[in-house]
Specification:
- The complex is a heterodimer of chains A (108) and B (539).
- Helix content of chain A is 6%, strand content 21%.
- Chain A has 108 residues and is mainly beta.
- In chain A, the strands form 2 sheets. A two-stranded antiparallel sheet of chain A has the order 4-5. A two-stranded antiparallel sheet of chain A has the order 6-7.
- The radius of gyration of chain A is 22 Å and the shape is flat.
- In chain B, strand 20 and strand 21 form a beta hairpin.
- The radius of gyration of chain B is 34 Å and the shape is elongated.
- The chains are: A mainly beta (108), B mainly beta (539).
- At the A-B interface, strand 1, strand 2, helix 1, strand 3 and strand 7 of A face strand 1, strand 9, strand 10, helix 1 and strand 11 of B.
């Protein structure tokens, strides 16, 4: 059980945080942290190192297909890779993951 | 909704290509390029289309772009390129059910519309991201993030006070709760959010912090000023929100509990099933009138023959003078043959015991505390009044419940009554008794937690219990009565409940331990239905 106390019920005092020097600026958050904080419903990082499946790290709507994976990613400071669709049609791969949704990974 | 992707085109072809699309011949939504210009297409459930295209020149080959499309559905839609809104529009209605294929890199349904280049970090949201959120994603992803502007020098190094405060403190919001609060006299603080501006580093995991409660908060928690000042915690999850410039830390600690306090009716020792911290106080006091002569045992039994917790100090006094300060532990077994640490004090003939106080280390786990004496009458001091009890477990008041029935009915409660003059009782214990054929199913009777509510319905009146009476479960303990040879087991659960209705009235009771009978049952009061309420909001 969680109970909320009245507003302004508490006062904060620092404890063991004394720092005489001006504090350095905080480190920037990572792209993963920022994206996670925004609570996407689906997120395909497209960082798969082997072709076949693009993982939805949120909802699990993984996509299949693709032929050119593991290319240099586009996020600064992030080693996660990206993918490139082929420039010509090579067929379509699809998979059903729920009874109401079909997710396909279109590669050409 | 919001859809977003990072792209790096290597070829800009004429016509449409798709970065993200969902369609089966008919487009539901698509984020892509049209002749090298970012474009978003939306179709509502009525079949109306909205197309937003970046009016600027085509993208630059081999440049990296963050393309985002949003739609309030119904309402405003916007197309962003590198966190800059480049096109806006409005589309009524809502999106039809998304059962069509979803694709990345080309049209979801066919072999055309191939995007030429690299695609990364595709994401969907079921809401419209704010401009600040899109800007932050772009800044972090592109490596152009700029730290929030440094605030003015901090009067309290490390943290900046609220703007409207001059005392160097920061107002914070606190929620508290304990996973098993039924067993704790004070709650654990589980979350502490610092909502002020941040000047210094976010505290790191393991750092200690101190929280000072206001007088109002201390009153709300029934803590003394000294207890309220004792809260400290440890940071477990520090985070920073760079958009708002706010640090959020999550910590855990404990409020109060280190002070001696006077025992009240609700503080009486209670049994427990042994795997939780007992709700017993870690410190307490009994004031006695006469135990002359006799022995008094304070014991903390353990499970079965395992030694229980030891008391740190026990002091008996007479007229303010310490008459004995026991040191050591005797071999103690309670009625259920459980062994534990105990202290026995022997009073000489003519010696009158005025007080017994004890302290227990705050972090120790006590399964049970028992106070026994060999004879006489013991008075328990209460701030409001004095009640007189006889026998072992002097504070126990109980009614009996039998015949558990369906899942939402605990059975029937019979209230037998006996007057307790002068006792203004704020709490009532309900003894749920269940007879079992064996002990294999004894755990299935009830599962109640602190904060649960039970409702006794349709109580005939007139008297203080007339109609429906709701009780808040403040604690419970349970035990199994060792049966006589051949007799069935009995399963008991004692609920500590309270309700303002009961305050200030004369409670009538049944002393279960002494087998007090129901002959004093008032006219018109018989078996009552007792129901467990899962959600107090349903009341």
């Amino acid at each position: 059980m969680t109970t909320a106390l009245p507003d302004d019920a508490f006062e904060w005092q620092t404890y063991g945080l004394v720092d005489e020097e001006p504090p350095p600026p905080p480190d920037p958050p990572t792209y993963t942290e920022v994206t996670t904080d925004t609570a996407p419903v689906s997120w395909w990082r497209l960082g798969d190192t082997a072709s076949g499946t693009a993982v939805d790290s949120i909802a699990g709507y993984n996509m299949t297909g693709g032929t050119t994976f593991n290319v240099t990613g586009l996020i600064s400071g992030d080693s996660d890779t990206a993918f490139q669709p082929p420039t010509t049609s090579t067929g379509r791969y699809a998979a059903s993951y729920t009874t109401t949704s079909t997710v396909s990974y279109r590669v050409g | 909704m919001t859809m977003a992707a990072w792209i790096k085109p290597t070829s800009l072809v004429a016509g449409d290509v798709a970065i993200i699309s969902r369609e089966t011949g008919t487009i539901q939504f698509r984020l892509g390029l049209n002749s090298g210009k970012p474009r978003m297409l939306l179709r509502n459930s009525s079949g109306t289309f909205l197309t937003l295209t970046d009016p600027a020149a085509a993208l630059t080959l081999s440049g990296t772009y963050f393309v985002v499309g949003t739609w309030a559905g119904p309402g405003a839609a916007a197309l962003y390129v590198d966190a800059v809104s480049v096109a806006t529009g409005t589309l009524s209605g809502s999106m039809s059910t998304l059962t069509t294929p979803f694709g990345v890199g080309a049209y979801a349904t066919g072999g055309t519309g191939n995007f030429r280049g690299t695609i990364d970090e595709v994401a969907l949201w079921d809401r419209v991201l704010t401009g600040d959120e899109i800007e932050l994603l772009y800044q972090i992803g592109s490596g152009t993030w700029v730290a929030p502007e440094e605030p003015d020098p901090d009067p309290v190094p490390g943290w900046l006070a609220d703007e409207d405060r001059t005392d160097g403190l920061v107002s914070i919001a606190v929620t508290y709760g304990a996973p098993d609060a039924a067993q704790l006299p004070q709650p654990l603080v589980t979350e502490v959010e610092l909502a002020g501006q941040v000047a210094g580093d976010c505290p790191s995991v393991g750092e200690r912090f101190r929280l000072t409660l206001s007088d109002a908060a201390a009153t709300a928690l029934d803590l003394t000023a000294a207890e309220a000042a004792l809260f400290t915690g440890e940071v477990t999850d520090p985070r920073i929100d760079p958009v708002r410039g706010i640090h959020t830390i999550t910590g855990a600690g404990r409020l109060g509990r280190a002070n001696r306090r006077t025992l009240s009716a609700s503080d009486w020792p209670s049994e427990d099933d042994g795997d939780r911290t007992s709700r017993i106080l870690d410190a307490g006091e009994i004031e006695s009138g006469t135990i002359d002569p006799g022995t008094v045992t304070l014991a903390a039994p353990g499970e079965d023959d395992t030694a229980g917790a030891l008391l740190d100090t026990v002091t008996a006094s007479s007229g303010g003078a310490v008459v004995e300060q026991p040191d050591g532990v005797v071999d103690y077994h309670d009625a259920d043959h459980r062994r534990g640490g105990a202290v026995v004090m022997t009073l000489d003939p003519g010696q009158i015991l005025n007080t017994i106080t004890w302290e227990q280390h705050v972090d120790d786990v006590l399964n049970e505390m028992e106070v026994e004496w060999t004879g006489g009458v013991v008075k328990v001091r209460d701030p409001a009044s004095i009640a007189t009890y006889n026998g072992v477990y002097p504070g126990r008041r109980s009614t009996a419940l039998t015949s558990a029935s369906d899942a939402h009915s605990l059975g029937q409660l019979v209230v037998a009554r006996r007057s307790i003059p002068r006792w203004q009782l704020p709490n009532l214990e309900i003894d749920l008794m269940h007879t079992l054929v064996d002990d294999t199913s004894r755990g299935d009777l009830l599962r109640l937690r602190h904060g649960d509510r039970i409702l006794i319905t349709d109580v005939p009146g007139p008297h203080p219990y007339s109609g429906d009476v709701e009780f808040l479960v403040e604690g419970w303990h349970q035990s199994v009565t060792r049966p006589a040879q051949g007799a069935p087991w009995r399963w008991r659960m004692i609920l500590s409940v309270s309700d303002p209705v009961l305050s200030g009235v004369s409670i009538r009771w049944v002393d279960f331990e002494t087998g007090y009978a129901w002959e004093d049952l008032p006219a018109g009061l018989s078996w009552l239905d007792l129901a467990l309420i899962d959600d107090p909001d349903d009341l």
